[in-house]
């Protein structure tokens, strides 16, 4: 076993409250986006919703706009 195997893995998954804070959104906004299929990808771990940090970054990058007239 290596030293890195003994270490606790980096936290890669966030719950809804943590993901919303990371994105600077409210929990309710993120939940509504999830229901409408407009938010970042998420995973279900049992009954729990989890967001992978890489998915949040990818979604944020895909949402980048240069003008308010840019189409969604």
UniProtKB/TrEMBL annotation:
Residues 13-59 form the Helix-turn-helix domain. InterPro entries: DNA-bd_dom_put_sf, HTH_17. It comes from the Bacteria. Pfam families: HTH_17 (PF12728). This is Helix-turn-helix domain-containing protein. It comes from Bradyrhizobium jicamae. The lineage of its organism: Bacteria, Pseudomonadati, Pseudomonadota, Alphaproteobacteria, Hyphomicrobiales.
């Amino acid at each position: 076993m290596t030293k890195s195997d003994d270490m606790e893995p980096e936290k890669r998954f966030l719950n809804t409250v943590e993901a919303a804070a990371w994105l600077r959104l409210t929990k309710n906004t993120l939940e509504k986006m999830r229901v409408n299929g407009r938010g970042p990808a998420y995973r279900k771990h049992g009954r729990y919703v989890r967001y992978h940090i890489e998915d949040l970054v990818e979604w944020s990058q895909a949402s980048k706009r240069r003008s308010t007239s840019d189409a969604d």
